[in-house]
Amino acid sequence: MSSGGDGILSRLATWTENLSEQAYAYLLLVPGFLVLLLFAFWPLASAIRMSFFADVITSASLGEFVGFQNYVRLLTNTNALAPAAFVDPSFETPILEQALFMTVLFAVLSVTGETLLGFLYAMLMKAEYKGRRLVRLLIILPWAIPIVIQGMIFFLLFRPGYGLLTEPLQQLGIFSSLPLNTTFDGFVIVTVADIWKTSAFMALLILAGLESVNQDLYEVADVMGASRWQRFRYITFPLVFPVLMVAMLFRTMGALRVYGIIESTTVGCSTVPSMTCLVTQMMFGSATQYGSAAAVSVLIAIVVGLFIMVYLGFIRRSNQSLGLA
Amino acid sequence: MSIDARNHEDAETFDGTGDESGGEPGDDENRSPIQRWADDWIRNPEKAYAVMLVFLGGVLLTTSLFPLYWLFNVAMAPPGQTDIPLIPATIDLSAFVQVFQQVPFARFMFNSLFYAFTVTVFVLLVASLAGYAFGRLEFRGKTPLLFALLVLSFFPPATLFIPLFRAFNQQVPMLGLFTLPVEIYGTPGAVVAPLSAFTMPLAIFILTTFYGQIPDGLEEAARVEGTTRLGALFRVIMPLSAPGVATAGILTFITVYTEFFFSFLMTGNSAAEWAPVVDGVIAFQTQYTVRYDLQAAASLIAIIPVAILVVVAQDKIISGLTQGALKE
């Protein structure tokens, strides 16, 4: 029995040994891409197709083919049933109530905050001292909290009347008396809640990058009399840079698709309408608009794609200036 | 003062060991403590750096842990109390017991742990193969394929829900070719498959980055010694990239463990029907009442497995290039 299994395995091994590098690479990609094809690429293609069909508000189905009509209505703010404006070309709607601008602002603020905090956390997790294991655990914990609970924590902190932070912030004139129902306040709460949780994600990835830096390099730097800043600039930063970029890339994509935390803090999509809010409201709301919901998804993908292009350009340029690629 | 500092710093560089007896002791008595600290730190920058780190660390930890501490407070408040004090009036841990009495919370946790464990093992394995190909091999179509992975993350997961739901629940043919068996809906399979697909791009990107950084020489040495191609991946590349593998593993595990959207919609509402742990936490919320104390207690209990995982995986993260791995 086992010898038969070994026979197949060893034959498989010999077979892979003789493949060209290119063929071997494709072979290694097959399992992953098979899963992705079935459970990600295929549903994605179906959704994109959906975006070109009319909404049928009374049932969970699609109407006739309408081309780009769903997109045009979203971009001109003429979809009367849309729960909020995706973008308002007349700019009569406040910036934070236009899904596009609200989300982009959220993404920029939260990713900046998370990266800075994440870097500090990662340094704290890397430095050597007693109790480091505990500190590492404590730093990662917020990331382990389900979004529903994260929402509950911030809801209880800011709820009108009782919330621990409601009154002090109101007296300082920063928040209104109903912070969870005010667009600006809600936006701030959601951003802070997001930074609180996902800094840990950043920290963990940056830490992994820091830990992979060959410590011998620092010894060489010490011998050469490099200052702390020089060590950071010429060793730590260039070597952490690739991981940092992966982390920021994925966090930016995550932030541009923000949704869960808006609902779970009870701030709600009607107060802080993110782009993904529109998708879920149109899909699961009382008036189902599958076509328009799918169109919003595609628009989100385009916005995210533009951001990613900026990142990739930046990575390419930095790689050159850091002498990496 | 600044010239003085310079001299001290230079001296520091030359003799290397930051000895504290460097300054004139008679001087110190005439100065204020602040001046003495400043002087000490200038003479000994490492010490100043350590003090700064401790201070910064303290502030950061306090702010980041405050919401968690507060959650603990909520768990100890009597039922129905919404005005949560900063310091709990009484230490009452009964909520932590009630959680298990009122709902089968252990089963809810088991369900999510099962999802998280299955997806993590599967994703790490499959993403390792792909990460190796992307990070270490040259082939045509590499950049477009990597970009295709990224494009998946451009779309909100909710977008994929309706086609997937139809495939699992209404037997709409996938790719227009074949239908999934009816029995899969409501079983772990309907959660594990899509969640594997959603968490895979990030895992592949992390592993590609780390696998790509391992010097070629190490792999070649192993190959010369007769290790197979696949063997080189699992015996050389993966152990050397332990921080990356552990990080990808932790991130995948936590993402799936705390996932709600798909694991909620693809399963039933009760623990026996494979509902996720978040469902267990929400179970204390009925139409008219919300037991915040039980929700808080339940969420603190739910964090424990993740905390254990992080503690265990830490050693993997720390054992980077410098420790042990090179000896293999």
UniProtKB/TrEMBL annotation, chain A:
The chain crosses the membrane at residues 23-45, 99-122, 134-158, 187-210, 231-250, 290-314. This is Carbohydrate ABC transporter membrane protein 1, CUT1 family. It comes from the Archaea. PROSITE patterns: ABC_TM1. Residues 100-311 form the ABC transmembrane type-1 domain. Belongs to the binding-protein-dependent transport system permease family. The keyword ATP-binding does not apply. It is a multi-pass membrane protein. Keywords: Cell membrane, Membrane, Transmembrane, Transmembrane helix, Transport. It is found in: Cell membrane. One of its GO terms (cellular component) is plasma membrane. GO terms for biological process: transmembrane transport. CDD domains: TM_PBP2.
From TrEMBL, chain B:
Keywords: Cell membrane, Membrane, Sugar transport, Transmembrane, Transmembrane helix, Transport. One of its GO terms (biological process) is transmembrane transport. It holds the Pfam family BPD_transp_1. GO terms for cellular component: plasma membrane. It is found in: Cell membrane. Residues 17-27 have a biased composition (Acidic residues). The chain crosses the membrane at residues 49-72, 113-134, 146-168, 188-211, 232-257, 294-313. InterPro entries: BP-dep_ABC_trans_perm, MetI-like, MetI-like_sf. This is Multiple sugar transport system permease protein.
